[in-house]
Amino acid sequence: MTEYVTHLDVKFSPLEVVDAARLIEECRDAWYNQTLCEVNESVVRLGVLQGEYHWHTHEEDEFFFVLDGELLVDLEGRTMTLAARQGLTVPRGVSHRPRAPARTIVLIVERSGVVPTGN
């Protein structure tokens, strides 16, 4: 089973340059999630992913945007495949499981306070 490394602290303040390249370069974890910044009532998270996550749902919408690699989002009955520079919103209450066959870099946007592990 993949170990999930999740950091909920906000890494960058307003008017501070978000240096995602440095975080990606330093990442040695198979499944890494770091909150980058807050925007209104939402957060932007960086995911450096390889492997699969568990099936889960959220009480809020979740948006995935692939920067590099390929993200598979399993839904009940189908799988959505996202390539670099493609995104997908998973509506609240929809059971899903993200998977990355190889190292993949994604941005995730969701409401502040959402625990990224789902239920």
List keywords for this structure.
eight-stranded mixed sheet, mainly beta, Jelly Rolls, globular, 6% helix, 119 residues, single chain
Q: At the first level of CATH, what is the class? A: Mainly Beta
Query: What is the CA-atom radius of gyration, in angstroms?
Result: 13 Å
Q: Tell me the strand percentage band.
A: over 45%
Q: Give the terminus-to-terminus CA distance.
A: 17 Å
Low-confidence parts, pLDDT < 50 over ≥5 residues? none
Tally of helical segments: 1
Helix content: under 10%
The major β-sheet equals: 8 strands, mixed
The strand count comes to 8
Would you tell me the structural class of the helices and strands?
mainly beta
Total domain units? 1
Specify the CATH homologous superfamily: Jelly Rolls
CATH topology: Jelly Rolls
Element pattern in H and E: EHEEEEEEE
Chain-wise SSE layout:
Layout: E1 4-7, H1 20-26, E2 31-39, E3 42-52, E4 62-68, E5 71-75, E6 78-82, E7 87-90, E8 96-111
